[in-house]
Amino acid sequence: MNQIRKNLTALLLLVALVSTSALAQQTAKRPLTHSDYDSWRAIQGQTLSRDGKFVAYALVPQDGDGEVVVRNLATGAEWRHSRGAAPVNPPQRSPEAEPGPGPGFGQGPFPGRPFFTADSRFVVFQILPAKAETEKAKKEKKRPEEMPKNAMGIMDLSSGEVTRIERVKSFQVPEEGAGFIAYLLEAKVEERRPEDRRADAAPAPAARGRRDSRKKEYGTDLVLRNLADKSERAFADVLEFTISKDARNVVFAVSSKKEETNGAYAVTTSTADAPVALLTGKGKYTKPTWDEKQTELVFLSDRDDASSAQPRLKLYRWDRKSATATGLVSTSTPNFKSGYVISERGAITFSLDGGRVFFGVAPPPEPEKDESEDVAADDRVSVDLWHWKDDYIQPMQKVRAEQERNRSYRAVFDIAGGKYAQLGDETMQTVNPASNGRWALGLDDRPYRTLIGYDDDANAADVFIVDTADGSRRPTMKKHS
Question: Residue 349 phi/psi, 5° resolution?
Answer without folding.
Answer: -140, 160
